[in-house]
Amino acid sequence: MDAIRLRAYSLIWWLVLPLALLRLWSRGRREPGYRQHIAERLGIYSPAPASPLIWVHAVSVGETRAAEPLIRRLLRDFPSHTVLLTHMTATGRATGQQLFANESRVIQAYLPYDTRLMTQRFCAHFRPRLCVLMETEVWPCLIDACQHAAIPITLVNARLSERSLKKAQYFSGLLGAAARKIDRVAAQTEADAGRLRAMGAQHVTVTGSLKFDIDPPANRLAQGRDWRARWGNRPVLLCASTREGEERLLLDAMVTASLPEDFLVLIVPRHPQRFDEVANLIDERGFRWMRRSAWRSDRLPSEVNVVLGDSMGEMFAYYAASDIAFIGGSLLPLGGQNLVEALSCGKPAIVGPHTFNFAQITEDAIEFGVAVRIKNADDLFTQLPEWLEDISGLQDTSARAAQFTQLHRGATAKTLRLLSEVMR
Fold it and tell me: Quick check: is 63 catalytic?
């Protein structure tokens, strides 16, 4: 029965493939990276290196950043191996290029679409010694191809929300069967581990979140401090990784809020294809604003009160330049983004009501006093002046944020031990 379901699933992929390729080409109008390496998405690749491969799949930006400390440890502990880093998004691939620009033992590729033929071709071409999937990447045909090629399969930094579990159980014939084929799972929290077991995963271990082990790049922190020095002594709010629909809520709340005249808001959308859309929203509301890409002078004009963060790879600089950070994806029922990066930079985090993708970490941060939950955008801008006026409170929270991240470090070492056991 599992084989029949898998063939039917693969056939559906073949039927929608023309639409998938058309969408890829369409997205390439705004993000040229989607029009590059298209053959790889069909399972056609350049010759593989002669050295043995450890394969890490990080679908997009967040997973790629989370994988960085693990990949660096793999390179150190397995000096004869090359790391194959695969992605699904152009921004994920660009992030990998930035992180490992000087590392000759890291090669990159796109993962093929999840058909039996393409995934089997991928496995036969690269013949990796180990498959390391990041966070939530359970692809039925891919996992089946790895099993038939005798490639050990691991899922690390794994998380699964209650909502995602319900979806997975609805398709349990496919996703449950795929989960049972995974050799080892390293979950972020006990709650994630329980849901992954309910999905069908076996041999689940709790190792914590790899994001706590990311060290903010010194050059980006220095860049952010330099920005702040040139902006002058003005209160700065960062709205980080905002999602569709959230910018409108935030900007509308700003219009009616009682904010200091010198107040500065940085808005950094999560997806670069939305930069122009968000620019229009800012312009429509009459704010004096500027794009980060257009700012070249020594000082930011004093009349500018909104900066659109339309740059890539500078998120840590934005955190360093701000006083406090709102974490996007949480005002609407999108599940929220990970607040660890903000805390690792010593910035207090504000989250909305919807954080089910990172429920445990968010609740722990709130309990520790380094994060605050708001009800809506109006609530954010109502409370914000009071928070920013409490300078000593902000400094204390900043110190506690750094302490919070230190207390949760160690996931990389635990995950590496698990991977080494599987390799042996």
Answer: yes
